[in-house]
């Protein structure tokens, strides 16, 4: 039995690992010739770390995960603490720590674990044909590949999704722009073991520790879509958007390197129920493109892979086995991923001032927060995963 894996991102690599555990041969095809991940880092919460452990790649998380032991919110203007608390109760209750990681390092190490020479790069999929027993991928370089099944982990701009759904889906602009990158840890900005977030006026500045003495940072600003900005004005743009904000935010702006800082207009896609068409399955952002507001994009792709792999346990290596496993995967995942996308959308709207009264109410709530409510929300999301 052979699976065609479209995409060598986190979803594709974790799927290959999950299927390999079940004795399924995998061929991996990646559109780009050289991996250049979008985004500097990402949050792998405890549910995602458990998935990496399950897939035999837990050592990667041990190496890359930052020491994020505490969490705090500060008023963006005054710099005053709104709430600050330990994440130890969360780790104790869910059985694993969260790991903010460099996206480039994570993807690189997952590829190295699989074997770089076993992945075919520069293979951008153009169209798909499927029969009852086979799937053929046609690539823009004129080549093709045939397998018994296909898992499309080709991202939010998935070329396979339209084939599975029978229609093209439009991405929805979430209403804000995100700048993200890496800087050396500077404790005048934030403690080196804490996820620190500054909030005011529907804007957000967040700093997370990752491995090797670095902070992952991001700035969020509600802005119109398509605003013309580039790297040459990046620092001055952020200085303008965060004029009057607290000293740590100004220190961070002055520390960033425009050449390694990403600017991204944030989108999601309206959740849909169809994740499978016969012997083709969608996975990761191709199946559930979300905003990053609850940090579950990478985690949900890892969950997808674990669930898909587990449904091949004990299955005959036949077409019937594939169809059954894929349908079970769809039934198991469609409600979970829809819930995550909508949770992220709701958090996005509150954080970024879609309703200013609601956002102000959240700020007021943060000033009364002991950590219990935030930890309860994180715990609920984490324990909703397949390896709770």
TrEMBL record:
<dbReference type="GO" id="GO:0071949">
    <property type="term" value="F:FAD binding"/>
</dbReference>
<keyword id="KW-0503">Monooxygenase</keyword>
<protein>
    <recommendedName>
        <fullName>FAD-dependent urate hydroxylase</fullName>
        <ecNumber>1.14.13.113</ecNumber>
    </recommendedName>
</protein>
<dbReference type="GO" id="GO:0019628">
    <property type="term" value="P:urate catabolic process"/>
</dbReference>
<feature type="domain" description="FAD-binding">
    <location>
        <begin position="2"/>
        <end position="341"/>
    </location>
</feature>
<keyword id="KW-0659">Purine metabolism</keyword>
<dbReference type="Pfam" id="PF01494">
    <property type="entry name" value="FAD_binding_3"/>
</dbReference>
<keyword id="KW-0285">Flavoprotein</keyword>
<keyword id="KW-0520">NAD</keyword>
<dbReference type="GO" id="GO:0102099">
    <property type="term" value="F:FAD-dependent urate hydroxylase activity"/>
</dbReference>
<keyword id="KW-0560">Oxidoreductase</keyword>
<dbReference type="InterPro" id="IPR050493">
    <property type="entry name" value="FAD-dep_Monooxygenase_BioMet"/>
</dbReference>
<dbReference type="GO" id="GO:0006144">
    <property type="term" value="P:purine nucleobase metabolic process"/>
</dbReference>
<dbReference type="InterPro" id="IPR002938">
    <property type="entry name" value="FAD-bd"/>
</dbReference>
<dbReference type="InterPro" id="IPR047712">
    <property type="entry name" value="HpxO"/>
</dbReference>
<dbReference type="InterPro" id="IPR036188">
    <property type="entry name" value="FAD/NAD-bd_sf"/>
</dbReference>
<keyword id="KW-0274">FAD</keyword>
<dbReference type="GO" id="GO:0004846">
    <property type="term" value="F:urate oxidase activity"/>
</dbReference>
<comment type="similarity">
    <text>Belongs to the FAD-dependent urate hydroxylase family.</text>
</comment>
<comment type="pathway">
    <text>Purine metabolism; urate degradation.</text>
</comment>
């Amino acid at each position: 039995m052979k699976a065609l894996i479209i995409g060598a991102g986190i979803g594709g690599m974790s799927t290959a690992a999950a299927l390999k555990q079940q004795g399924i041969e995998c061929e991996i095809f990646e559109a780009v010739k050289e991996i250049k991940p979008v985004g500097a880092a990402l949050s792998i919460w405890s549910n995602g770390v458990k998935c990496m452990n399950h897939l035999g790649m837990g050592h990667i998380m041990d190496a890359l995960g930052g020491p994020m032991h505490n969490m705090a919110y500060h008023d963006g203007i005054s710099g005053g603490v709104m709430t600050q608390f330990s994440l130890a109760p969360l780790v104790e209750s869910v059985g694993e720590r969260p790991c903010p990681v460099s996206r480039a390092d994570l993807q690189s190490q997952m590829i190295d674990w699989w074997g770089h020479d076993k992945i075919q790069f520069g293979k951008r999929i153009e169209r798909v044909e499927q029969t009852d027993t086979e799937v053929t991928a046609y690539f823009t370089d004129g080549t093709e590949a045939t397998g018994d099944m296909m898992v499309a982990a080709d991202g939010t701009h998935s070329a396979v999704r339209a084939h599975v759904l029978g229609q093209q889906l439009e991405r929805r602009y979430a209403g804000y722009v995100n700048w993200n990158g890496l800087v050396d840890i500077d404790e005048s900005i934030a403690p080196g073991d804490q996820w620190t977030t500054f909030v005011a006026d529907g804007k957000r500045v967040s700093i997370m520790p990752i491995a090797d003495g670095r902070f992952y940072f991001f700035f969020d600003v509600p802005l119109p879509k398509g605003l013309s900005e580039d790297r040459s004005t990046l620092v001055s743009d952020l200085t303008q958007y965060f004029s009057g904000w607290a000293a740590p935010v100004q220190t961070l702006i002055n520390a960033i390197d425009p050449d390694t800082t990403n600017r991204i207009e944030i989108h999601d896609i309206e959740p849909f129920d169809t994740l499978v068409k016969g012997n083709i399955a969608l996975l990761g952002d191709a199946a559930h493109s979300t905003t990053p507001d609850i940090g579950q994009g990478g985690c949900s792709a890892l969950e997808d892979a674990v669930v898909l792999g587990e449904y091949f346990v004990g299955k005959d290596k036949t077409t019937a086995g594939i169809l059954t496993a894929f349908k079970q995967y769809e039934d198991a995942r469609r409600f979970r991923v829809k819930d995550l996308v909508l949770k992220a959308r709701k958090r996005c709207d509150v954080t970024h001032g879609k309703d200013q009264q609601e956002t102000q109410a959240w700020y007021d709530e943060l000033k009364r927060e002991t950590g219990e409510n935030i930890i309860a929300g994180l715990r609920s999301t984490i324990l909703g995963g397949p390896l709770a």
